[in-house]
């Protein structure tokens, strides 16, 4: 028997009852779609740094500077060195100590002189570009600049919560705060911090004012990098900040973006993969069932083909090919639906869809395999029929 | 003397039942090329059983059956199937046309199995249809043909693979007298071209046209003069 004839006979057999064949593919369509969507979405999502929080996390490096030795491991000026590295967007040096974290701060509130109760707040010395590193925004006034630092101006910037606690909302009368009985002019209020949110409750002072509160040396450096540069910068940061004592600095790098996404999704993926496989099995049972019914309906046809010289193998091959074609059709439809679904989800989330070409090709093949396995028993039944019985 | 197309010697066919049925009882028969033979007998006498044995669709329980000189009773299933496809054409009472295929496709089915060239298949099918006077209905589906037309398509299919033997089981059983006449005329024409034809029938009109008549009763065969 010519292979083209086998193909033609199987196609004709499948297309003789198009609606039934279409319905028979449903289980396979469902299974293959689920599998393609699950794997496609996993691959697509895995290629993204999901959401804003993750992006910030993936670009944030913190360097802790130990304070045990007498000399300063990192100078205030060293932060400028760090900014010269490719991939560093901003870097801020901070100084804070246990003592400076619990200072009584009072506001002289001109509008309400009765409210003079002190608040216990943290005082933190910081280089001026804190706003960029923490992605914060100035709610009022301005941040101190290089001029303030050089002139040793006694100015402070209040964190949003600290300002609220002190009752300072407006700066047009140049309010002052008192710490250790000395007055400092409030020139700005910063809020909306996305990183180091604890600073919202702090009083920020220029590095040159820090010594007033015992804050001489840098205790921590915050670094913001470009997306994808964090790993490299983390390796270079310590050396750039402190060429002689690089080993003593503790660099806290973000977890690699790969690990960031996997954890939560693995369970969900496993569940959907099982769901897809179950659908495939249901689809296979469906194909087996319908093929068996079809064969019982086509007993006379089988008898005729045997009378015309078809061998048992010819009969088995035809029905196997028919069920495989049904499975293949289900696989092709499933792969197409799955691909469309993945692309749609990616478009809605503004992701780049990632589709493994091997997956797109394997899906129809898997469908055909399901059909082939499902057709084994019915095809065997058809081949076993005796021509006399089939023609009776 | 030419080799006989069919040579049956002491053929028996027993069916396991309670009590066992002997549907063919020691049948001996010789059919030469170009013979036109009718097999007649009452219902249940073993006509179809004989035809199934002759068509290699069924195996006899004992005896020898030589088809074109080839001993068939010792052949395995595959070889019997090939022999059947190559040498024997069948015409059934119920036509056995595939309902979803056109007339031409049904006829071409005869060349799908076995070793036939694909080239020229359509032309051969058209020619076979012309031969039975159905050349004007090639694109039809069987459901839209009359009973007589369907049987003629089935005969075209049987002729397509150029068999040496045409086996017909009640070929006119579902036809009226006019269509019966047309089919019998067709058989006459085929016989004159040298085809060997065996027809099972219970109609005198049909058996009268045949050159030889054998009667079967309770599995026993007797030739009539
Ligand atoms: N598979 C079988 N098992 C048991 N008995 C059978 C079987 N096939 C046929 N028979 C018996 O063999 C006998 C001959 O049957 P067969 O079909 O050859 O008759 P027939 O001459 O063709 O009859 P009809 O004219 O009604 O078609 C019958 O008695 C039938 O009951
Ligand atoms: Mg009969």
Automatic annotation (TrEMBL), chain A:
It is a multi-pass membrane protein. It is found in: Cell membrane. InterPro entries: ABC3_permease_C, MacB_PCD, Macrolide_Exporter_MacB. The chain crosses the membrane at residues 21-43, 271-295, 315-348, 360-380. Pfam families: FtsX, MacB_PCD. Keywords: Cell membrane, Membrane, Transmembrane, Transmembrane helix. Residues 21-206 form the MacB-like periplasmic core domain. One of its GO terms (molecular function) is transmembrane transporter activity. GO terms for cellular component: plasma membrane. Residues 274-387 form the ABC3 transporter permease C-terminal domain. PANTHER family: ABC TRANSPORTER PERMEASE YTRF (PTHR30572:SF4), MEMBRANE COMPONENT OF TRANSPORTER-RELATED (PTHR30572). Belongs to the ABC-4 integral membrane protein family. This is ABC transporter permease. It comes from Sinosporangium siamense.
TrEMBL record, chain B:
Gene3D superfamilies: P-loop containing nucleotide triphosphate hydrolases. Coiled coil: none annotated. Keywords: ATP-binding, Nucleotide-binding, Transport. One of its GO terms (cellular component) is plasma membrane. GO terms for molecular function: ATP binding; ATP hydrolysis activity; transmembrane transporter activity. SUPFAM superfamilies: P-loop containing nucleoside triphosphate hydrolases. Residues 6-225 form the ABC transporter domain. Pfam families: ABC_tran (PF00005). InterPro entries: AAA+_ATPase, ABC_transporter-like_ATP-bd, ABC_transporter-like_CS, ABC_transpr_LolD-like, MacB-like_ATP-bd, P-loop_NTPase. PANTHER family: ABC TRANSPORTER ABCH.1, IMPORT ATP-BINDING PROTEIN. This is Peptide ABC transporter ATP-binding protein.
